[in-house]
Design goal:
Layout lengths: L3 H12 L3 H29 L7 H36 L4 H10 L2 H21 L1 H10 L3 H7 L5 H11 L4 H9 L2 H9 L5 H22 L1
Helix pairs in contact: 1-11, 2-3, 2-11, 3-4, 3-5, 3-7, 3-11, 5-6, 5-7, 5-8
C-alpha cells in the first residue's frame, strides 16, 4: 500500500492537464448535490425557528430531498467515483459523460446497492456511533464494486467490500483525514475551493481502491 502522499501525488499527476474536465464534472456533481439537499436545509431553518413554513410544504420538501438522495444523488455518486477510477486507470478524461453513463447503466442495481450499504450502516449506528462509522468504512468500496463486478448482487458487493477492507479501514480514514486542511480552505472560500478539492480527493480515493484491489 502506498502512503497518503503517494496517493495524492498520483492524483495530481493524473489531473495535470486535465483539470478542465475534472472541474466541469465536479461542478455538475456538486450542483446536483445542492439541488437535492437544499429543500432539506430549508426545513432545518424552520426547525431552528429562522423561517416559518406550513407543515404540508415541509413534508413535501423533505420527501423531495429524501427521494432525490436515493434516486438521483446516490447513483450519480456511483458514476462519479467510477468515472475517476477509469480516469486514474486508463486516462479517460470524459468524466462528465462517464459519470452519467456509470450512474444510469444498471441504475436500479446502483440504487439498491447504495441503499443497502446505507441501511446496514444505519443499523450498526443504532448500537453506537463508532460501530456505524467502522461499518461505513467497511462498505466504502461498494460504489466501485457495483460497476466492476456486474455479475455480483448488491449484497455480494457489500460482503466483498467488507473482505477487501479488512485491515484497511484505518488507512482510508487516515486518507480522508489528510484532506481536513483542504476542507477548511473550501469553507473559508465559501465553498469555491470544493471545485478543486472534490476531483483531487476522488482521484486519490480511486488510487486507494486500485491498491486495495491489487493486494486483494
Amino acid at each position: 500500500m502506498r502512503t497518503n502522499k503517494e496517493y495524492k501525488n498520483a492524483a495530481l499527476a493524473s489531473l495535470k492537464g486535465n483539470w478542465a474536465p475534472a472541474l466541469l464534472a465536479s461542478v455538475i456533481f456538486i450542483g446536483i448535490v445542492w439541488a437535492v439537499m437544499l429543500p432539506y436545509y430549508t426545513v432545518e431553518l424552520v426547525a431552528y425557528g429562522l423561517i416559518k413554513m406550513e407543515p404540508l410544504l415541509m413534508l413535501l420538501l423533505l420527501s423531495f430531498s429524501w427521494l432525490g438522495m436515493l434516486l438521483l444523488m446516490r447513483p450519480i455518486g456511483v458514476g462519479f467515483s467510477n468515472a475517476f477510477l477509469q480516469f486514474m486507470e486508463r486516462g479517460e478524461s470524459d468524466l462528465t459523460q462517464k459519470t452519467f453513463k456509470g450512474a444510469f447503466k444498471g441504475y436500479w442495481r446502483n440504487v439498491w446497492g447504495i441503499f443497502l450499504a446505507g441501511f446496514f450502516t444505519f443499523l450498526w449506528s443504532l448500537l453506537l456511533l463508532i460501530p456505524g462509522i467502522i461499518k461505513g468504512y467497511s462498505y466504502a468500496l461498494v460504489p466501485y464494486l457495483l460497476k466492476e463486478h456486474p455479475e455480483l448482487s448488491a449484497n455480494q458487493c457489500i460482503n466483498l467490500s467488507c473482505k477487501m477492507m479488512k485491515g484497511r479501514k484505518f488507512d482510508l480514514f487516515w486518507l480522508h483525514l489528510s484532506f481536513i486542511g483542504w476542507v477548511i480552505l473550501a469553507a473559508l472560500t465559501l465553498g469555491i475551493g470544493l471545485l478543486w478539492l472534490v476531483p483531487y480527493a476522488e482521484a486519490s480515493f480511486a488510487a486507494f481502491y486500485q491498491d486495495v484491489k491489487r493486494e486483494y
